[in-house]
Amino acid sequence: MLVREIMTRQVVAIGPDTPIRDVQLLMEQRNIRHFPILDHGPNGDDGVDRLVGIVSDRDVRLVGADHPRAPEGVKATDPVRALMVHPVITAHPDDPIEETAKTLRARKIGALPVMEDERLVGIVTAIDMLDALVRMSGVTGASSRLEVEVVDRPGALAGLLDRVASRNVNVSSVMTSRADEGTVTFVLRVGTLRGHELAAYLRGLGYTVLWPLERP
Predict the structure, then answer these.
(1) Which of 21, 54, 127, 210 has the most CB atoms lying inside 10 A of its own CB?
(2) Residues sharing a CB contact under 8 Å with residue 125, sequence separation 6 or more, in sequence order
(3) Are 29 and 14 in contact (CB under 8 A)?
(4) Are residues 64 and 93 in the same domain?
(5) What is the pTM of this model?
(6) What whole-number distance in Å separates Cα of residue 156 and Cα of residue 182?
(7) How many CB atoms lie within 10 A of CB 124?
(8) 204: three-class secondary structure by DSSP
(9) Do 17 and 103 sit in the same domain of this protein?
(10) Three-state DSSP class for 76?
């Protein structure tokens, strides 16, 4: 899945000279947490709005607050350019969402403007990422979750999927987790509500099934 499939295309942006108090009001009225900041560029009226910053609701709330992270000397009547974050970390519409999620986590930010050919074409947020993860996991349909630990070797996943398919059960998603060296845990979303029966079958073949728990 790519960023273009989950991003918000109708982006509400503001100019760098917008007073901070007006930004706060817009955030409350439109229920928006991040505003890209666009400027018309140094070359005059060239028809190109350039991304020069971004501001979040957290940044705005700290203005004038009795908080150690409150921006010093910034007032609510000041233009938002005094508060905006720049340069801006951005995404591209064709970026894989897992790489974009990694950037959000590493940078500890809540949103990325999406740029294409130097133009703002969207914005993607951490909430968008969570929504995408839910869809990709297949959890929204009738299904069960299997968590199986296997030896980390070539063909381990293929063998497990073959065993599940032999029970006429479809697998809608697979995620992996590595905690111990030499083993890997596969988290499967399978198209059956009889997850315990499938787990018992796999245990009978010698698989270590971590979830669902074995019934007494």
Answers:
(1) 54
(2) 8, 33, 34, 110, 111, 112
(3) no
(4) yes
(5) 0.82
(6) 12
(7) 26
(8) helix
(9) yes
(10) coil
Cα→Cα distances 21→18, 33, 101, 136, 208, Å: 8, 14, 31, 39, 58
CA-to-CA separations, 26 to 14, 22, 34, 81, 205, in angstroms, rounded: 10, 6, 11, 16, 60
pLDDT digits (tens, 9 = 90+) for 74-87: 999 999 999 999 99
Are residues 17 and 119 located together in one domain of the fold?
Answer: yes
Phi and psi for 39 in degrees, rounded to 5?
-125, 155
Does one domain contain both 117 and 171? no
* Cα-based torsion angle of the residue sequence 14, 19, 21, 22 in order, rounded to the nearest 10 degrees: -40
Number of domains in the chain: 2
- Mapped onto helix, strand or coil, the DSSP state of residue 10 is coil
User: In the listed set 133, 164, 194, which residue is the last one of a domain according to the structure?
Assistant: 133
Sign of the Cα torsion 152, 155, 157, 159 reads negative
Residues 166, 125: contact at Cβ < 8 Å?
A: no
206 backbone φψ class: left, alpha, beta (φ>0; ψ -120 to 50): left
Convert the pLDDT of each residue in 90-141 to its tens digit: 999 999 999 999 999 999 999 999 999 999 999 999 999 999 988 888 887 8
Q: Indicate whether 10 and 117 sit together in one domain.
A: yes
Q: What is the CATH number of the domain that holds 17?
A: 3.10.580.10
Q: Domain span at residue 55?
A: 3-133
